[in-house]
Every structure is written in C-alpha cells, then in structure tokens.
Amino acid sequence: MYNHVVVSHLDDAEIDRIFHALADATRRDIVTRVLRQEESISQLARRYDMSFAAVQKHVAVLARASLVVKQRSGREQLVHGNPEVLHKAARLLDEYEQIWRHRADAIGDILSEEDE
C-alpha cells in the first residue's frame, strides 16, 4: 500500500539517481551551496581540492538527478539548486517514516496486549 503512494510521485529510476547523487559528500556540499546562491562551475571548482573536470562530473551527476540546473551565461555554466526535487525526496523519506511508525505502533500494541 505505501509503496504504491511512493511510486506515484517518483519512479524508481528517479529515486536511484537522487539518492546516488546525494550519497557523495562533495555533491551534497555542492547542492547546499547552489541552493543558497547560484554559482558558476568555475567558482565551485575553486572551493574543492580537485580538478575542474572532477567538479564538472559531480555537477553532471547532480544535474542528471535534477537536483541542480545548469544554465549557460556567456562562457560560464551557472548552477542553481532545484528545491522541488529535494522536496520530493523528503516526501519519499516521510512516507518511509510513516511505514516504520505504523509498524512500531503495531509492535507497541502487541506488547501492551501481552502485558494485560
């Protein structure tokens, strides 16, 4: 029942892309930065101890997951966050939490019946 609700607003491929992208600390940091303020890939590359190409690859993973949006402005690629996708991911986790709470409540009910 709960899985049906989850599938209705995110398909499995989207879920895989989002959580794969967020599984990396550098990518989570990039998302945090570009949610606060749009930055170019050059600006982002100066913040990390890695090559420009490596930062581009991280941004590409985030863009495939729709967590960030790239937009060309002259010679630069500007990156900004996409809070809507984060909201969908949060909603998915909330649904999983509801499943867990339902099970925990059921276990609590069983234990209280045994005490009576």
Automatic annotation (TrEMBL):
Database matches in CDD domains: HTH_ARSR
Protein name in the entry: ArsR family transcriptional regulator
Sequence ranges assigned to domain HTH arsR-type in this UniProt record: 7-103
PROSITE patterns: HTH_ARSR_2 (PS50987)
Molecular function per GO: DNA-binding transcription factor activity
Record's signal peptide: none
